[in-house]
Amino acid sequence: MSLSTVLGYAAKAVGQPLEPFTYEPSKLGEHDVRVSITHCGVCYTDIQGIEDHYGITTYPFVPGHEVVGTVSAVGHAVSGLKEGDRVGIGWQGRSCMQCEWCLQGEEQLCQDIGNCGTWKPYGGFSSSVVVDGRFAYPLPAAMSSEVAAVLMCAGISVYTPLQSYAAGGSRKVGIVGVGGLGHLAIQFAHALGCEVTAISSSPGKKEQALKFGADHFIITEDQTSMRQVRLSFDLLLYTSHGKSDWTSLLYSLKSNGRLIMVGFSDDPVTFDPLELVVHQMSIIGSLIGNRVAMREMLSFAQAHGIAPWIELMPMSQVNHAIQRVKENKARYRIVLFNDTVGADT
Ligand SMILES: [Zn+2]
Ligand SMILES: [Zn+2]
User: Fold this and answer.
1) Domains of the chain, first to last
2) Closest ligand to Cα 109
3) For residue 67, which ligand has an atom nearest its CA?
4) What's the gap in Å between 287 CA and the centre of ligand 1?
5) Distances in Å between the alpha carbon of 47 and those of 18, 53, 84, 171, 202?
6) Which three-class secondary structure string do you get for the chain?
7) Does 2 score more than 50 pLDDT?
8) Which among 48, 123, 251, 298 is least surrounded, fewest beta carbons within 10 Å?
């Protein structure tokens, strides 16, 4: 292995377990930074990436997009970052910076979004990664690296829609799913001053949901409780990816209510159009967040003590970590710490 070789963990084909994989580091573009990775969170999207759920995966595929590490090299046009800075990187590692969305500051909607992933060419389950420095965010000094890692994708994904649609005034918000995204969403919604109801299929999560800041807890299958919240919520944030009773969820929205999807549900959304029209409801998708929101989210999380629950594991156990996420056993996010650091130095 040459001194400059990067050591990562790659799937060689669709759905395959990850195996150690070495590659020559990408050359730095003028706006790029190389980041030596200390931590990387495991997100359900990584698993969908391995399975080519989005039709954009190329193999060998190194997943990982909740990255924290130290800047080890900077391109000559990079400003605001220098070697040694600790940064976080989320799903988006670059954008075209030229399309109508990038020019509006909505880089997450870039027309070339399929090529904007931190995964390209290789992601964060690795000793280092190269991204555009404009998508590497300095972290609050007091924030631990494992907490920051999870905030880079799970955090921004729930913060952006809550900040856009639920901030200001005591909104009634239902968080559907108390998992990796949901347990953070409860904390953000509570900190934004909302009245929060956690809606889960697991009765065992009640105590934890209340601890995260939920004011109420409802079991999805409990039809009586679901009927009691008919026309109650200003906003439902759907963070799950399993099967759902869409009709009873929509019934719980107030007039002008919004159902916001942040999880990629495997289950098609079906609903009664009568309900949607009569109560002027909206179903809205929300994808990560832009660069301004990313910086805001980090300082908001730091100011309000928002932090995920984390299982910390060595990166060499990445397949075990993936298995736990697949089986929905992680409580609530897994972060890998790099026990291969130094491989590319
Ligand atoms: Zn993610
Ligand atoms: Zn663009």
Assistant:
1) 6-138+309-337 (3.90.180.10), 155-285 (3.40.50.720)
2) 2
3) 1
4) 10
5) 11, 9, 31, 34, 23
6) CCCCCEEEEEECCCCCCCEEEEECCCCCCCCEEEEEEEEEEECHHHHHHHCCCCCCCCCCECCCCEEEEEEEEECCCCCCCCCCCEEEECCECCCCCCCHHHHCCCHHHCCCHHHCECCCCCCCCECEEEEEHHHCEECCCCCCHHHHHHHHHHHHHHHHHHHHHCCCCCCEEEEECCCCCHHHHHHHHHHCCCEEEEEECCHHHHHHHHHHCCCEEEECCCHHHHHHCCCCEEEEEECCCCCCCHHHHHHCEEEEEEEEECCCCCCCCCCCHHHHHHCCCEEEECCCCCHHHHHHHHHHHHHHCCCCCEEEEEHHHHHHHHHHHHCCCCCCEEEEECCCCCCCC
7) no
8) 48
- How far is the centre of ligand 2, averaged over its atoms, from the C-alpha of 288 (Å)? 15
Residue 174: what pLDDT?
97
Task: Check if the beta carbon of residue 253 is closer than 8 Å to that of residue 279.
Answer: yes
pTM: 0.94
HSE toward the beta carbon, residue 88, CA cutoff 13 A? 28
How many residues make up the chain in this entry? 345
CA of 77 to the centre of ligand 1 (A): 28
pLDDT digits (tens, 9 = 90+) for 123-132: 999 999 999 9
What's the pLDDT at 1? 40
Tokens of 157: 């994904």
Residue in the structure block whose two tokens are 């934890």: 208
- The rounded Å distance from CA 97 to ligand 2 centre is 5
Cβ density class 174-212: b for 16+ within 10 Å, e for less: bbbbbbbbbbbbbbbbbbbebbbbbbbbeeebbebbeeb
CA of 43 to the centre of ligand 1 (A): 5
- Give residues whose Cβ lies within 5 Å of ion ligand 1: 43, 45, 153
In the predicted model, is pLDDT for residue 205 greater than 70?
A: yes
